[in-house]
Amino acid sequence: MTIVIAGAGLSGLTLAAHLTRRPPRCEVLIVDDGGKDITAAGWGSWSDRPGLLDTAARHHWDRVHVHALGRSRLLDLGAYRYRYVRGADLAATVTPMLESAPGFRRVRGHVDDIVEAGVEAGVGTGGAARVVVDGEPTEARWVFDSVLGPSDPPPADAVLVFRGWHLETEAEVFDPRVPTLFDFRTPRSVGASFVYVLPFGGRHALVEHTTFAAPAVACVAADSDTQRAALAEYLDTVLRVGRYRVEREEAAALPLSAQPVRRRRGHVLAIGTAAGLLKPSTGYAYERIQRDSVAIADSLAEHGHPFAVAEPSRRHRLLDGALLDVITARPSELERAFARLFDRSSAEPVLRFLDERTSVREEAALFTALPAVEYARAAAGRWRRNR
Ligand SMILES: Cc1cc2nc3c(=O)[nH]c(=O)nc-3n(C[C@H](O)[C@H](O)[C@H](O)COP(=O)(O)OP(=O)(O)OC[C@H]3O[C@@H](n4cnc5c(N)ncnc54)[C@H](O)[C@@H]3O)c2cc1C
After folding, report:
1. What is this enzyme's EC (predicted)?
2. How far, in Å, is the centroid of ligand 1 from the Cα of 283?
């Protein structure tokens, strides 16, 4: 019986690679309609542990700059490294793994529908779920869905709006040894805005203007002219890069939700952003997708089903939600919060917190720097609403 992975983007390819480690005794079909060009994608992330796809990372850094409240800091990352994986490199790493694994097949096709057993009469006779690709049904034992997602996704608490330029400068202006995780020296718009800089070489970088916005004002924050003007102003007046050429632009508006996603529908499991793996307080998903894929592959091999994966931590969701509530109500608070959280020589404790690996005691130590009453009020409000 077949396993279908719907979507061959970040989560589909990562899961497929992990399944080759402990191959299921059935065909694995990976379906993508080519709607998104993976070679144009790229993901930054931090990690403190080895992973199956580490060789896909082209750039690594062990220090970062932060600029907030008029202060610039250089922080080491402790046990962590920050890295950047280009979509083309991810695809080039995973493709040979799939080609040498018996039973793995990639096909071009549009997923029209995914129907779990019990929803439609007849499904469950040949398989436990049915995937309709270009009008043709395929019966599947398990379906991993990164394309349609649950029919009832939680409402967005905020939207992460960003526009980035992959650029080439005439002069050598970037220090390729140190990226800038956030720099608040950019006009505040309707949301909390900062710029993020990944230097790939002395003359090449990704410079991204990023805003955490309340859902009601996300379309204002996403105004492309305003974002481009902010990028140009940052390059001219803050980095003073001189002449440059934009090689490629990327932009998105990602809904952020601290509510859990109902990932499982019968024999269908949502993966990737459809599974709520975008961390609400950061907008990062890369490393969470790596860990989720390890857990799914291990669960299938050890239990014969893919569901022995960690549930999102309730405490961290509450804290993420409280942060989003505070910064969407008062955008200036993001800069203040980040300035205080990163007012240390190493970013490691904050990254451990964002990885949801801190204890309550460690979190209390981190949060002493924040206006406790405001966050406590936001967290209490969320807790009451979620009960
Ligand atoms: C521009 C951008 C930059 C980002 N940068 C970062 C970052 O630096 N770090 C980070 O951690 N996260 C980042 N993210 C967030 C997140 O990691 C990415 O969105 C990531 O690609 C999500 O993986 P996914 O598998 O869920 O979706 P995708 O990677 O988008 O994969 C979905 C795939 O499904 C295919 N598809 C869609 N619909 C259908 C259909 N009906 N039938 C068949 N195929 C279909 C698409 O062609 C695509 O290949 C970024 C997101 C965006 C949009």
Report:
1. 5.5.1.19
2. 12
